[in-house]
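User: Hello, can you help with two protein structures?

Assistant: Certainly.
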Amino acid sequence: MKLVRATVGPFRSINEPQSVSIDPDVTVLVGMNEAGKTVFLKALHKAKDALGKESFNITDDYPRKDVTAYRRRHEEEPDVVVRLTYRPDAREIERVNKLVGIELADGFEFSVNYDYQNQRINSVNVTDEAVLKKLTLNTALSEGVRGILKEATTIRSASNKLAGFESPNDADTALIESLKKRVAATDGAKGWDHISAYEVLINFMPSIPSFLYFSDYDLLPGKLNLQDLKQRVKNAAADPANASKQIEPKHQAVLALLRMAEVDLEDFDNGKSYEELKSQIEAVSISLTDQVLEFWKQNEDLEVEIDIRPDASEAAPFNVGPNIYLRIRNRRHRGVSTPFDQRSRGFIWFFSFLVWFDSVQHQLDATGKASNKSLVLLLDEPALALHALAQTDFLSYIDHLSESNQVIYTTHSPFMVHSDRLHQVRVVEDKVKIGTTVSDNLSGSDPRTIFPLQAALGWNLAQNLFVTKFNLLVEGISELSILQAMSHVVETAGGVGLMNNATIVPVGGLSNVATFVSLLGANGLNLAVLHDYSGRSEQKLESLVSQKLLKKKSVFNFSQFRDLSKLGEDSVATDVEDLLDPDRYMVVFSSVFQKELGHKTIVQSDLPPGDRIVGRIEKYLLANSIKIRPSGGYNHYAVASAMVGNIAENCTDDTVARFAALFKDINAALK
């Protein structure tokens, strides 16, 4: 059975009810700090806590601005705080159909409401019509009974009418007794006009999932005094109302670890040997570490070490009785160990979660075996302290959890969102006067709220951009468009263009080349760089070569292909535009900016002297006070785009020869 929708509110910062669709596998709540992500999770947790410890409290949970007015009507008209809608699976529906004698269709849904008096109000939209209709098909019944069943609208009314009916027919008698029992079963329940609806709910109830909530507060500590823990457990048992003051999350975490190891606090006082106790706990620790390392790929040389010993030199309360010490040993550094709570926060979170989750499953099953009860896991900011790649690894663990339990988690990290699963994302915002809102509408959300999603998409685009092993880095998008077009022209002319499995990557300027080389080179990709030439060598590129981050034979500039008689040699300052025919470039330039130029066609002879056609045009515009754009100069890409739009007519034989030589050398370098 799956939770398909949750409506929450009024609750804390959620002033108005928020209806949120829940993904059958994983739901991600994305929002800024203090937006109300945790509030939403806590509302679900309090509605149906798997451990039965949570409940709604007006003082803590009702929106403060309205709580005084609400108190006046609380006893008579308690507000519904959470409405949960469930969809049973086909197997469950088939089972209930057989038990109740009804015909629920696949996709059937029902709801359960929870109010501020911690009452459960059920809403099952089922009538007795189908049951009664099926009963009338029983030919063993007398005509009189079948007639009553046909006229009845509910099982209750049919039972009342048949109460005084006398018949020697055994089938009639059995039916009348059966209906009496079905009606009697609802005598203690209110509001069930249709007995079938009650029976449907009763049969679905065992399958309704409960909620488990986990946050950073539930992490295991580095050490804990067991005698102090034992006293706290006693105090909590004596005063259950204030148990939370005695048993903090860190105490719960250690109790969970001991429970998993089947060690009782009394065992430390009844003569059980140190070796026996330690071996039991270590066995659990080893098993948990193995589970962590199945998904933890950042450092697979870690292991958790547990010790139990007294230490009179410690500060109180650690100086009395035995303490439990948790440490993390790193085999990579010759077995050096450090206190558990001083190590990587991510590893601690992972290990603590497994302790908590495994322990809770045991608590839910009286036999001591892992429970098979349906759960919805509520994870508050999981893996927040993990490295970006470790967060990506952790997503695999969440997918693993979702195979047996629905997962709802909060985050504001772009690496904790599958960019190809944005349908799982719900945006959480805190709006003025409205309070917390939860929505799956990404387009209407605050840009600050959806920033993690934008970053996730950006990361995905970046990864997809570098899908090939061979990458040619160029400075800008103009180079990209011209090179792509000219590769096609060269191939059409019978030559060899840029190799098909190479990707042209515009890096946004020469200053960004070093960054891209470092990032792409680290992934083991083959790289070549093609850049504009200023007339002198580029120090940044030479530095990359000297650091062996880039091979010298993989660095090219456009000047090396400008003079067909000196191919491969550096010549004068050259941009990609200088490999094109200058006269034809000027024709395209004039047509693109004809309005700004007063419909005048500028020819090459109008331009001041210089090596670069782009520089000469910009000088001309400045000298003639022609402003094409406010910042000066002109949009190179606009001309390049127009140029390649009719590239066949804009090419000369020399242009094709230049680019054919360029692609030949670059292909050789990439291979």
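That covers the first. Now for the second protein you mentioned:
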Amino acid sequence: MKINKLILGFALAINAIAFAQSEKKEVLFTIDDKPYYTDEFTRVYNKNIDLVKDESQKDLNQYLDLFIGYKLKINKANKLGLQNNTKYINELKSYRTQLSKNYTSDTKVTKALIEEGYNRSLKEIRASHILINVDENAAPADTLKAYHQALDIRKKALAGESFESLAVKFSQDPSAKENKGDLGYFSAFRMVYPFETAAYKTKKGDISMPVRTRFGYHLIKVVDSRENRGEVTVAHIMILKPTVTTDSPEDKQKPKSIIQDIYTKLKQGENFESLANQFSQDKNSAPRGGLLPRFASGQLSSEEFENVAFNLTTPGSYSEPFESQFGWHIVKLIEKHPIKKLEEMERELDAKIRKDDRSRLITNSLTSKLRKKYTIKRNEKLYASIKALVTDKYYEAQWASPKDINAYNDVLFKIENKEVRGSEFLGELEIQQKANLKIKPISKLVDFIYEGFVDTQLNTYYNDNLENEFPEFSNVIEEYRDGLLLFDLMEKEIWNKAKQDTLGLGNYFRANQAKYQWKNRAEVLIASSTKEDVVNKARKLLKKDKTAEAIKEELNTKEVVNIMTKQEMVEEGTENFPKNVVMKEGVSEVYKDGEFYFVNKVIKVLPAGPKTIDEVRGRVINDYQQYLEDNWVSDLNKEFKVSINQDVFERVKSAMKK
């Protein structure tokens, strides 16, 4: 699917940057009498100008044409009703929720939590635990009973009883019977926050006091502490597993056989990078000698690969062949790196905090500020009448609000211009009844629920009004809204049409056949080795029309891989075109390139000529999409009435050039 520069320029370059306007806001142009203003045009131009590589688009006259074309498409999308699409509404809502997090956080609290998380991430803790279950909303008596039970177990451990035996006997964590409470090594953000805090604050060999989490009370014994292993840079050679499911034992064993041959060549002293370049099937890393970007624990899709990489200790050393879910690998250690600096991890840590129990600390801090920002005056008479309705049946989840709630539909309190009615609080009381809260007496429970209800309403109001509070937030949301609409419109009007209009696609292909031509091609078998005499033998076998498998069988042994082969179709003038290949059937002379000797056999030559549409369908569809779009913008100019205030535009240009 093709996304053109307009979408990238106007919709996806989302940064909360407000452009200060020196000139007053004026109508720059209208589309069917709908006004578009100078401030939006100058803001978008200045924000995106560095992203535009086409110099013509930096010209203000050209940019105005692009901007109008963009707004024409948005008008078309709205005319078609794409803004009412459920998928569009949900995606916009999801993006707004994500972006709003930057405005609904207490930065001071967040910064402190980021620093704490970073400092903890420098260490990995190994701990065991014993869990005594107690519900988060349990009655005080049940909570106290669980706490004392945990205390009694701790006393037994401190008196010398084995923590592991106590875990097996008393822990209500189902896994304790098998692991004796051992949780292995973990770092920050791997456990619930209260548990993590206790683990990091408990000394090695000590047992914590009972720690309350949503699961119950824990006793934590810290067994060990070690440095975080940081990041590592490696290179690898990979042979992929078959992409097609096969029952053939030979096909299943082939990748393993190839990687073993390569491993044998490594042990014979051949160069890792050269072998990776020739034989690794990781197309991204093979041209760089198998080199991968540096990574930390948990960043790759294969734990097996990470463990092998981190277990290598000496730069330049390499592993034995091993299997991952993707295929077979040999890994070479290039360099080990210490853990990232705090400033490099801030965004990552911030994202983790928002998904963690720590986020409650941030929410509570913001709520406290909102309580000061907005004055809440409660209708005491209405509140008292609602409170009188709630009886002790609430504890058994048998309470119900009145069937006729009109008497309670007056305003209970206001947040600025938002009215919150008593009937809404009654609804909240019914919802919270399911939480099985045990606060007594019932009047205190109602007060507790009311305070939480007010907090929720405050946060909701604040979030709903971010566009009014922060102009830059409003601008970004508007850009994203337009970008989503434009994407859906392009998919409907251009991309899908280009794929489905087989007749139009065929006509376009035939009219532009000259753009889709093959150069001379050849099917080539290439044999290589670090030993010249072996390649000479291979050349003789090639001249006898021996197959690649037959050559390997004759020149290789179980212990030594002397020759490697590959057969492929190559096109003259392309990047992967082998050296010393002549576009003529036959066997080449032996030649050397780097540390390797090569011989080529050109099996078949295909002359230059036109490609079929099936051979270039993807490229033709892209070209046809662009052709349709270019003509479509002209049609939109006819469908909508565009009127430019030329005097206003001239003033904008003068102001922007200063």
